Amino acid sequence: MKHIQKIIAFIAIIGLIQISYGENIGVDEINVIDANTLSVMLSDNPNLEVGEVQWEITILNDMSIRGSVVSETAQNQIEVMLVDPLLPNTKYSLLTISGADGSIDFETPASVEGYQTVNLNLWGGQDIDSIEILDDRTIIISYTEDVSSNSYEYKLLAESLVTKIEKPDYFLPELVITLEPPLVSNKDYILMFIDMQDAAGNYLEFDVGIYDFSTEEITEVEETNEMLDTSENEENSQEDMMLEDEDSMMWEDENSQAMLEDTMLEDESSLDVDLEAAPEDAAMQEDMSDEEDATIEVTEAATMETQTPDTGAETWVLIIATLFINTFYYLSRRKKSVLA
Fold first, then answer.
1. 39, 90, 293, 295: most buried by Cβ count inside 10 Å?
2. How many domains is the chain partitioned into structurally?
3. Domain residue limits at 155
4. pLDDT tens sequence across 257-303
5. Of 218, 251, 271, at which residue does a domain stop?
């Protein structure tokens, strides 16, 4: 990064830097774990407390600037065009790198467009007096003095809020930093150690204290997994409900079918009983009727015999007639029984 000394001087003046910089501790590697988490590997492993610590570390987004031009209406104004839009409710630091002198800190409101603010920390001499945001990609800078350079270079840094700093392992020189808002893919960032103490309360000194890193394509792994888990749980719940409904329907169908089969069996049994009983009952009624008729006739014949006891030939005729009648009814019953 160009002009690091100017950036350090600027930060020192606005009261951010509280430690001296030596050639002691450095940063070997900065890894982006996810959009809200950084892993920082130090060059040395100082005596640091394990767990969450209360240090002051700043993460700055080095925002890309498209270009700048001198205003046509005022000699002390520069129009700066940005590649990325300004975000609402975010802290920014605007630094003049070349062409003029001056810097300003500001925080955007919920509505970025049309926001204006004055510099509360003027250096004296040439400095940034105020800024006006025309839209989320255009800033008008007003200096306390006229400017006359042919080209101007600026650096716009957006600050990310560090919500947690942890030392997970005493024997490893690793720091885990959690921040908001989330990091953006394929952007340049700056990590700054402002105030850091060891377990004994001694301030730590770094080789420079300001370190650059860039983000690659960041995927929202955790959100994706949560969505997949939610979808899977919903699908499982729906499948369970469907299975329960199917089981209930099958149970009802089986019960209905069983009840229907029982009813059919009862009907068939009743029908068989009726069919079997009906002919027998009819045959029995016919046989009983025939027997009653035969008995009556035999009784009548016996009465007639009693009335004529002196006629032997008539007696034999009555016996033969009775035998004949009984034989006739016997054969009739056999025939009906065979037909049935």
1. 90
2. 2
3. 4-218
4. 555 555 555 555 554 544 444 444 444 544 455 555 544 454 454 44
5. 218
